Structure formats: C-alpha cells, structure tokens
Amino acid sequence: MKIKDEFRKRIPDRDKRCSAIIHGASAASGAAAAVAIIPGSDAVAIMPIQVGMITALADEFEVPWTDSAVRAALWASLGRIVGRGGANLMLRWLPVYGNVIRAAVAASVTEGLGWAVVKKLQRDGRLT
C-alpha cells in the first residue's frame, strides 16, 4: 500500500489532511530556520519544504503534478522572500532570540502560504 493511500485511509477528511500537511511543513520550516547558522542558509532549507507542501496539497486536490510543480516553486519563492524580509526586520541577529524569531517567521509564513494555496485550490481547483 502506498503512503498516500495509508494517509488517506487514516485521515479520511480532506481538510484534516491539508491541515496535517501544512502543520507538518510549518514545523519543519521553523526547525530548519532555527538551526540555520549561516545568514541566508535558512532560505535554502525552507524552500524545498514549501515546494513539497504545495505539491502535496495540489495532489490532495488532484491537480496534475506537471501543472503544480512550476507554480509551487514560484509560490515558495514568494514565501521565502516575505519570510526573510520579516525576519530581518525583527532583529534577526540577536543571539538565541534571533533563532526563535527566524523559526516563528518561517513557520508562520509557511502556514500562511499553505492555507492560501488550499483556499485557491478550493475556489478554482488550480494554482494559476
């Protein structure tokens, strides 16, 4: 049995599956941003997480993977830019606090991006 089928079997409600995907990606991006030591390296770690989240959400709504793959990268890039700008404005370089701020910003941007994608997919059935 595929992982996707097992996931759908254990969580039959689509909204709850989307919530699990988004919360998991938000936690992962927050953790990635918190442990990033080199300035700017958090964006390198967060972008693949966001792309994976968007493609998983597109798969939940049965949007063709080829259509969603390019747009997912674009959405993730936008989230990365917004997140980095927000983290820089919030005293990013403070010891310990800087890591907490980066983690909070990364998690919240990923969360917001995920729910925006879900709303778009519910409304239009596509990412364009």
Describe this structure in words.
The protein has 128 residues and is mostly helical. It has one domain. It has helices spanning 3-10, 14-35, 41-60, 65-89, 97-124. α3 packs parallel to α5 (97-124). It is globular, with a radius of gyration of 15 Å. The N and C termini lie far apart (32 Å). 35% of the residues are buried. The mean pLDDT is 79.
Q: Please give the number of β-strands.
A: 0
The main pleated sheet reads as: none
Mean pLDDT: 79
Structural class: mainly alpha
Element-level helix/strand string: HHHHH
Helices and strands, with pairings:
Layout: H1 3-10, H2 14-35, H3 41-60, H4 65-89, H5 97-124
Helix pairs in contact: 2-3, 2-5, 3-4, 3-5, 4-5
Briefly characterize the structure.
With 128 residues, the protein is mostly helical.
Task: Tag the structure with descriptive keywords.
single chain, 128 residues, mainly alpha, 5 helices, globular
